[in-house]
Design brief:
Radius of gyration: 22 Å
Strand content: 15-25%
Largest sheet: 8 strands, mixed
Number of helices: 14
Bound molecules: flavin-adenine dinucleotide
Distance between the termini: 30 Å
Structural class: alpha/beta
Shape: globular
Mean pLDDT: 96
């Protein structure tokens, strides 16, 4: 759509949070526009057809805490088939690298770590989560690897209080057509302005003045949903400045998680929904999901400093590493059978600059600081503002709904 010169509410960002906010305001009677820097909705939710029959969620894929996940009902309403099969990461394994008795040992060590962390968090004192690893335990590198998938970061940079605030009901479902595709359908009816990069929010005058790459508009209220790293880097600026918001965003950096999908020739001899893991003694490794939804492909997942190193090695490095590792595990035959299709590079994505937020030790309280409205005119949403479902798509969506509610309450008070 063309950019209006003035509206009641500007929503910045058309990811899950911005869509949740805009959908909530649809019946409010307020004029709304969603300004999005990309040429698509979904933000860190993005589904592509990596090949004619291979659906790939480049960003979020799992409906985490599915029994409390607001996207489940949205999927049902929009006729998106929900796959409720168990996820591959805990119960299933393929190949000799990680036999059953070792997996049992690892799960015991992981659960014991989580128990110690839970007890420690009860004291209310914050500390880095790696302090609760059992010294010398052989599974510590792999527990740290799990943190790189869950938090996008190693445990030494993760606040124990924040980690414990996350609500995981251990029910994880998926969407055959993709999480990003669901977001696209959810946002289809909204007033969206694409290629519209917001650079400045001037809140010094009676109306907000929003500077964008497509021109300037004014608004009575704004909901800011951009990822924390953009606020921390001041890629989007405020006038007057909002040092508390910048400080909060710096305490809630996005960690890194990246994915790759490889086409698999003659897929039948690998199990559908299998899990393959190369090494169990180091943090720098990723699990491989064999034939998700039975598709002829293998997906790899990498996190933390290792994902950063792979991204920094250049385009195609994640696929090349994955093929080498799978060949080492399953045999040289696989070099011919695997073909790179697509990989993410979220740290290099200018409008994300990472994957999902975690609180640095000592910064668990920053989610509430980031979420707090300013002056009854500026409102903040996005996964990092969610008190218990941060780092997830449904946490982001719900935060948008919360911010839209705050806008309506402020309008009603005026
Ligand atoms: C690899 C990966 C795997 C993941 N897996 C899962 C999973 O399985 N389950 C799950 O629930 N979550 C998962 N997540 C996290 C989930 O995708 C995010 O938490 C969620 O999508 C964030 O939504 P958001 O609206 O807060 O932010 P975003 O989706 O980042 O939306 C913000 C929007 O703002 C736009 N924007 C940025 N700057 C500007 C600007 N200056 N002007 C205008 N627009 C701007 C961006 O382009 C973007 O569209 C994963 C993420 C990644 C990267």
């Amino acid at each position: 759509m063309s950019l209006p010169s003035e509206v009641d509410v500007v929503i910045i960002g058309a990811g899950a949070a911005g869509l949740g906010a805009a959908r909530t305001l649809e019946t409010s009677g307020l004029s709304v526009v969603v300004l999005e820097a990309r040429e698509r909705v979904g933000g860190r939710g993005h589904t592509i057809m990596a090949a004619p029959h291979i659906t790939f969620d480049v960003g979020c894929g799992w409906l985490h805490s599915a029994d409390k996940n607001s996207f489940v009902q949205i999927a049902e309403q929009l006729n998106f088939e929900i796959n409720k099969a168990l996820p591959p990461w805990r119960e299933r394994a393929f190949g000799k690298a990680f036999p059953q008795h070792e997996r049992d040992e690892f799960i015991r060590a992981l659960d014991a770590f989580y128990d110690r962390a839970e007890q420690a968090a009860k004291t209310g004192r914050d500390s880095p989560a790696n302090a609760y690893l059992e010294p010398g335990n052989r599974w510590n590198p792999m527990i740290d690897a799990i943190s790189t998938y869950v938090n996008g970061s190693e445990l030494d940079r993760v606040s124990i209080l924040d980690m414990e605030a996350y609500e995981d009901t251990n029910i994880n479902w998926r969407l055959r057509r993709g999480y990003g595709a669901l977001m696209a359908a959810y946002g289809a009816s909204l007033p969206l302005a694409f290629h519209c990069n917001v650079t400045l929010i001037d809140h010094s005058g009676p109306r907000l003045r929003i500077e964008t790459s497509r021109g300037t508009l004014t608004a009575s209220k704004a909901i800011v949903t951009v990822p924390t790293n953009l606020i921390a880097d001041e890629a989007i600026r405020f006038h007057p400045t909002l040092p508390d918001k910048v400080d909060a965003a710096r305490g809630l950096p996005l960690g890194l998680a990246d994915k790759v999908t490889l086409a698999l020739d003659r897929p039948e001899d690998l199990p559908a929904e299998g899990n393959l893991r190369a090494a169990t003694m180091r943090t720098e490794m990723g699990p491989y999901h064999l034939r998700p939804f039975g598709q002829p492909c293998i997906e790899g997942f990498f996190g933390g400093r290792f994902a950063q190193a792979l991204e920094d090695a250049g385009d195609g490095a994640i696929a090349a590493h994955s093929i080498d590792e799978i060949v080492a595990l399953l045999g040289s035959d696989f070099r011919r059978r695997l073909k790179p299709l697509a990989e993410s590079r979220w740290a290099h994505d200018p409008f994300a600059r990472g994957s999902y937020s975690h609180a640095l030790p000592g910064h668990a309280g920053k989610r509430a600081v980031l979420a707090a409205p300013v002056d009854g005119r500026l409102f903040f949403a996005g996964e990092a503002t969610s008190p218990h479902f941060f780092s997830t798509a449904h946490g982001a969506r719900d935060s948008g709904e919360r911010a839209a509610g705050e806008v309506m309450a402020a309008v009603a008070r005026a």
